[in-house]
Amino acid sequence: MIRRIFLVSTALAIGSVLAACSDSGNKQGAAGSAGAAAQQATPVGVISLTKASFPITTILPGRAEASQIADIRPQVSGIIEEIPFKEGGEVKKGDVLYQIEDAPYLATAAQARAAIAKAEASVPSAQSNFDRYQRLVGSGATQIELETARTNLLQAQAEVESAKAALTAAEIDVDHTKIIAPFDGVIDQTAYNVGNVVAANQTVALTTVRQLDPVYILLTESSTNLLRLREAIRSGEVKGNAGNAAFRLILENGKEYDQKGTLDMSKSVVSETTGTFIIRVRFPNPDHVILPGMYVRATLELGAEVGYALPQLATSRNANGELTAQFVSADGKVETRIFENASPSNNAWLVTEGINHGDQLIVSGLQSISAGMPVKPMPMKINDRGIVVPTEQAASGEAQKPAAK
């Protein structure tokens, strides 16, 4: 009996200890769960969106070409005596590029001058003879003799004019022995050297001069986008005029060119094979940063529209190709929104629906969050270099300025 009571007492004591341990564990588990919940609020950088008017832009691929190109060919034949230009260097309009031997042409010009003097010497005699027969006609001179004297005078005068024309031609040939640059530009390497014989108007060019300031950029645009833009301008959705559009250039290294371009002309015929048309834009190029053949991207500002600008760094595309962005919901959780209609605006997407004034767009920390996850919003700004920084580090007034690259 005593042993049974001892066993029951021992069991009750062990049960009490286990119950105490269980209560302590439950309290610690609850505290741990609360701590884990608090830690799940991931800090993210956000910007508050404000409705405003933003530019409508499009990015077009393009290729650079010289505004003027001239293949240099000789207009007279002869031996090249001098090549004063530096290959690959800059030349100015009127600079001598090639000097062809001019002695034969100077001799021809001298002969023409002598021919003029000879022809002019016969004119006074012919003139005197004509005047004499004119006085004597009807009283010792026949009409036939008068007409013969008139003819001789006209022939003498014509020989003078012919000799003068020959001199002009000879002097032109002398001038053509100096081959000059037709405009300011950059010159290629020479295909002929000193001592080579060249022929007038030969097929092979001596060299080529290209004018690089200004430079042309040939942009390719689809006819579909052109029709869409015209319809948007006509309906008033987009305010602007494509004819007065401003062009900005993105170079191959990703940097923006510091000169603005203007529309020069565009082809009026759409390509049957590609469905595109060519836009030619004129850009100042004083430092020759842009070279012919270089591939670039041009940003075309077509007009303006009222809406909200979503920086491209804060957006992505889902499996269906739709534009998506992450927002902070009213209960502090990540909310994914899909935008069916969005227009490019510099380095942002311009949307008009699905956003309210003051909505918080998540711009940093996107890699560590997912939809429905609690987050802690941290106010941010996007500076003029496209970098997300805390609000106090950004310059005043840059909240909604699309960052230029």
Automatic annotation (TrEMBL):
A Gene Ontology molecular function term of the record: transmembrane transporter activity
> Under the cellular component aspect of Gene Ontology, which terms does the record hold?
cell envelope; plasma membrane
Looking at the record, the residues that make up the Multidrug resistance protein MdtA-like beta-barrel domain are: 214-303
Q: Where is the signal peptide?
A: 1-19
GO terms in the biological process aspect are: response to antibiotic
Say if the entry is tagged with keyword Coiled coil. yes
Cellular localization per UniProt: Cell envelope
Spell out the InterPro entries in the cross-references: MdtA-like_b-barrel, MdtA-like_BSH, MdtA-like_C, MdtA-like_HH, RND_pump_MFP
Keyword annotations for this protein?
Coiled coil, Signal
Family designation: Belongs to the membrane fusion protein (MFP) (TC 8.A.1) family.
Record-given protein name: Multidrug efflux system
